[in-house]
Amino acid sequence: MDVGELRPANRAAGWSSVSLLFSVHGAGKDAREYVVRIPPTGGGVYAEYDLAGQTRTQQFLHTHGIATPSPIHYEPDTHWLDAPFLVMPRIVGHTPSDTSYASRGWLHGAAIEVQRRVHDSFLDTLVALQRVPVDQAPWLRRPQGVGNTAELAWWRDYVEWATDTQVPELIVDAFAWLHRHRPEDPAELAVCWGDARLSNAIFDDSGAIVGALDWEQACLCPAETDFAWWLATRRQTMEVNGITADPELPGFDTRQRVVARFEEMIGRPLQALWWYEIFAMVRMGCCILRVQWLLRSIGQAGHGLTRAPVMPAWAVEAIRS
Question: Which residues lie in coiled coils (predicted)?
Fold first, then answer.
């Protein structure tokens, strides 16, 4: 067996984690590629990187039919790479761009039936998460507990840390609005992805989902949480690209249709969906603030991202109305 050298997974450096690739050549077998993930050096988007917890989450979800990379191995010994790391098989396929999937690239140019399969297989994944037994995943509980009150507390603590306590007035107002309008938790919570975006999934040529990635923010929340994150980040993408069509791609459902389908698939009406969408944009805004803080801390105050809006106009209007 021949193991190749580690190489960067891509040219883009991120603060969420560092990904490396290596190949394994076996006698008489095709080479297989693996991904190594290590915590970012010099500070990251999150205060802690629980790779052991991520490994456990991905293994657990894979046994319940979620397309997480498997098998996956966690190595706590820092002797090898000067940091703990995890190893998992590389999944080859298409990953839609966060900012441009609806205006250019593979998904934009794909046949309508492929777009439809991308949409539906992603939706099916969100529904499948509702069937995962939450009582078997106690490590996904926040220190503050579970549900909306706990999530609000966790994210309020997060933005204090992320900005070195320099929280902008807009975010302070946003959390006040969220607390005033906080809905009751539904009777049953679910395992939530925490970052349910098309850019965190890998699809094969037919549009079927073959990889569900990036489980750093997995938690126990209402089903509305992931679904609203998907809707809100899609709306954010359309706003950035000046797209007003609903849906943004001909193979996707309209907003009204996908909401109705999701409700039918999980067996109950969604509650206070608008609140969860605002909360999604507040959480995204907290992460944007952290990235901006990191850029300034390394002398990149002129970087374009430091001028990016913390929240989209429609979310700002909602909390200040």
Answer: none
